[in-house]
TrEMBL record:
Its EC number is 4.2.-.-. GO terms for biological process: translation. This is Cys-tRNA(Pro)/Cys-tRNA(Cys) deacylase. It comes from Liquorilactobacillus sucicola DSM 21376 = JCM 15457. It is an enzyme of class 4 (lyase). One of its GO terms (molecular function) is lyase activity. Belongs to the prolyl-tRNA editing family. YbaK/EbsC subfamily. Pfam families: tRNA_edit (PF04073).
Amino acid sequence: MAKKAKIKKTNDERILDQHHIDYRETHFDWITKGKDALTEAEANGVPAKSILKTIVLKGSDNVRDYLVVCLPLEYEINLKKIANELGKKQVHLADNKRLINITGYVHGANTPIGISVRKGFPIYFDERIKKFDKISVSAGKVGRSVCLRQGDLIDLVKGKYLKVE
């Protein structure tokens, strides 16, 4: 009988384990498959709008004014609306070339889990996800995600909801 290959956990999955948070590992290859990845997710019982992307933003207040916004993959981010909601003059996308220095993750692997625990950046969630009991976010590796209870993630990262539409 062949042994099943054991998949090494990511640091972010270990953080969830340390906090006794239940999760299920999932795979969404959004970068190479685009919307086809969402179709696959739906076929596996994961609503597409419950799969979140993690966007790192730079505020205008000071040099270390970074924040994170998580919203469903298929939605576009409205920087002006977010700045207005947060009472900032403006917000910009963080420099992709410096993302690993800013968050510790490469583009496509950013996750509110590790960014909150390691960097302490404020984490905001699109309020449209409130209707989902379970949501999926990156597990800290491109193409790999974790599906967990929304409330557990919000509590862990001390997240707040934003009206971003």
